[in-house]
Amino acid sequence: MKIGLQVPEFTWPGGPAELGQNFANIARAVDDCGFDSLWVMDHFFQIGAASRAPMDMLEGYTALAFAAGVTKRVRLGTMVTGVTYRHPGILAKTVTTLDVLSGGRAWLGIGAAWNGREHAGLGVPFPPIAERFERLEETLQICLQMWSGKVGTYDGKHYQLAETLNSPPALSKPHPPILIGGGGERKTLRLVAQYAQACNLFARDDATLKHKMNVLRQHCAKLGRNYDDIEKTSLGLNFSGHHRTASGIVDQIGHLAELGIQHVIFSIPDVHNLQLIELIGKDVLPQVRNLQEGSTHV
Fold first, then answer.
1. Phi–psi pair at 275, nearest 5 degrees
2. Cα 88 to Cα 109: distance, rounded to the nearest angstrom
3. 295 phi and psi, to 5 degrees?
4. What single DSSP character describes residue 282?
5. Residue 285 to residue 250: CA distance in whole angstroms
6. At 52, phi and psi to the nearest 5?
7. Burial classification of residue 70, based on how many CB atoms lie within 10 Å of its CB (0-12 exposed, 13-18 middle, 19 or more buried)
8. Are 266 and 3 in contact (CB under 8 A)?
């Protein structure tokens, strides 16, 4: 079982003047405690209720580059980049830069985008959902072409590139792993089966999670892809009451392993306090590290 942390917000004591130091402390703690991955949201406004939008939100790849500079081993990614936020050629270059400067630790986390408010707020075009999925598939193709080392043209419906030059190349081989977020059964999970090394499933009940995995398995069968080659990740646990204790966290992770999850990503309230990160590193990771998909006990 792999363990990751997503930083869900950046409005912390001390305000913007201390935000950099607080974030550096989180990144170092995650690295030192043995977490496998560190993620930030890729949003321009804080998501949630309308009253939350004025809360602090960092630009995702700048934040990850900062985290790369204060860590040594943890892998880094966005959970997840909306396909509309950056031109795909620039996105591939950005993720490649993060991969090179971090020593080969970058993920590409990506999805079809959904937050109309921040698009309108900052003047980013927000096409209909069908077009966003078309753009998502073209973006995946462009990133893979640029990471293949092939310098050529790309002529898609929405994007045309004259020269897919990407120098220096990524250090991750064959390329930075791609994680696609979401559980849409007709399009999203088909794209996972065709292009991705990991999926992130947001389902919160067992039956739905099992169903999504079965749909992914069916897409893999149709495309000739090995289902077991795709890492199944899940975001978020319950951190109230007993679930905030080491035994409560271990129980939840064990249950997710039984369902087939291989990489649990925490989204921790008041993460800047570091206590829960340190608890997980000291008392949880040693118990769950050897859990396998389908495990029935810790």
1. -60, -45
2. 13
3. -60, 145
4. I
5. 9
6. -90, -15
7. middle
8. yes
Distance CA 241, CA 58 (A): 30
The residues spanned by each domain of the chain are 2-288
Helix (H, G, I), strand (E, B) or coil at 272: helix
Beta strands 154-155 and 160-161, pairing class: antiparallel
User: DSSP secondary-structure letter at 242?
Assistant: G
For 171-187, write each residue's pLDDT tens digit.
Answer: 999 999 999 999 999 99
pTM beyond 0.85: the answer is yes
* CB neighbour class for 14 (10 Å; exposed up to 12, middle 13-18, buried from 19): exposed
DSSP state of 154: E
How high is the pLDDT of residue 240?
67
Architecture of the domain delimited by 2-288: Alpha-Beta Barrel (3.20)
Query: Which H or E run includes 18?
Result: helix 15-33
Which neighbouring-strand residues pair with 111?
82
Overall average pLDDT of the 258-266 stretch: 94
